[in-house]
Amino acid sequence: MRTVLVVEDTPSEMELLSHYLREGGYSVVGAVTAKDALTKAIELKPNVIVTDVVMPGMSGFELCRSLKKNPETQKVPIIICTSKGQDIDRLWGMRQGADVYITKPFTREELIRAVQSVGG
């Protein structure tokens, strides 16, 4: 079973993302902070990472940079899933190493398609 690491600090969003992914046949591991996500990404080697941008401490953009710099996680595809929907946000996210950028609100189909598009 493919594993998706979901990084989201809002409990309701975490629940929705996890629910959609499990319905799509994925195993889901959650992280509430980017720092926690870094640790879990190295330990668990997920197939895909889905992250929010606006989080306390380290942002999703910073998380992308850190994951792409680390030899153990640099090949893991990253999907940014955020309410920041302006073109500049999307451009910046892709420059930080994101493979796919989707905005909230999203549908189940959009999320699953995004994960499948990066090999998940």
From TrEMBL:
SUPFAM superfamilies: CheY-like
PANTHER family: PROTEIN PILG (PTHR44591:SF14), STRESS RESPONSE REGULATOR PROTEIN 1 (PTHR44591)
Modified sites of kind 4-aspartylphosphate: 52
Record organism: Leptolyngbya boryana NIES-2135
The keyword Metal-binding appears for this protein: no
Span of domain Response regulatory: 3-119
One Pfam family recorded for the sequence: Response_reg
Protein name: Response regulator receiver protein
